Amino acid sequence: MNIEIREEKPEDYFETEEMVRRSFYNVYNPGCTEHLLVHIMRKHEDFLPELSKIALVDGKVAGLIMYYKSYIQTNDKTLTIASFGPLCVDHKYKNMGIGSRLLNETIPLVKEAGFRGIMIFGEPNYYPKFGFKSAREFGLTDMEGNAFDALMGMELVENGLHIEGGKFKETDAINLCTEEALLELENASNYENLKKVSRPCQWSYMNASDKKEGYHYEYATHYPTIFENLFKKYNTDNTREELLHIWKSIDITPYVLFNEKNPIGIMVISVEEEKPQIKHIFLDIPDDLSISYKEEITKNFMELNK
Predict the structure, then answer these.
(1) CA pair distance 124, 147, nearest whole angstrom
(2) Using one digit for the tens of pLDDT, what is the confidence trace for 84-96?
(3) By the 8 A CB rule, do 276 and 198 touch?
(4) Could you read off the pLDDT of 132-152 as tens digits, one per residue?
(5) How far is CA 162 from CA 1, 68, 286, in A?
(6) What pLDDT score does 62 carry?
(7) Does the domain formed by 3-188 have CATH 3.40.630.30?
(8) Integer Cα distance of 202 and 27 in angstroms
(9) Whether 254 contacts 276, CB under 8 Å
């Protein structure tokens, strides 16, 4: 299997947008808008095409990292930095290290281009392993003065992001991703037909994860190290094919199950039917507790999906 990392060409545009659309569809909301941002960003003044890359597997677009200019504002100045998004890999090509390659091969290019740092909104359980730190460590916030866990940065020069009173301002291209623009793009493009569904852990979905108390579940992709360790325990000769199908399917989603802060197993749901359905629960706890936990988890899930 041949993996190639290179700049995107015009003939790749549609295939890239479809890949991005598949990767994010129904993840944070029913449907997605990330492919619209890609479409808009290519024509925006903040776009950094020389730093942005796609990954191809045997000639098929399998991943993307898109860089653009963003800004840190203070009372008396505005500094230009870099940001990226989306960074994504097609479901079919997960667990091949493509996302890591896209990051590891482009961050040095951003530094060589003279940027003082990179700021992102991203998964706080994923990006720190590449060197990203919470914005709080730099004394930075968003434009409203918030320092969410998802707001992270990486300095590319000494004290590149230690900016007194600095506030992170995203590219204006974000504001162009409206419902009207999405509808126009969807109507004009021959994208594959995907079904919008609600699933646990979407921003608009009420679920047991909201309180983070007792048992709750989180997207496996939000806790990659924990999920990988649990995955290895269940990845036996009898379950390997099934688990790989779970990980790579657009209609089947794995979650890490927690009790308070302790990971206790994996839950798998399917959205192939009208409402989300639990397909599997794998628990890393003593057998005498397993039945009662499964009953409690299933009962709560069914109550939320009436």
Answers:
(1) 12
(2) 999 999 988 987 8
(3) yes
(4) 999 999 999 999 999 888 999
(5) 43, 21, 48
(6) 97
(7) yes
(8) 6
(9) no
Q: What is the pLDDT of residues 66-75, one digit of tens each?
A: 999 999 999 8
CA angle 266, 231, 270 (to 5 degrees): 45
The CATH class of 215-304 is alpha beta
Location of each CATH 3.40.630.30 domain in the chain: 3-188, 215-304
Residue 146, both tokens: 């918030």
Residue 214: pLDDT band (50, 70, 90) is low
Kindly report the pTM of this predicted structure. Answer: 0.85
Whether 106 shows a pLDDT value over 90: the answer reads yes
**C-alpha span between 110 and 118 (Å, rounded):** 8
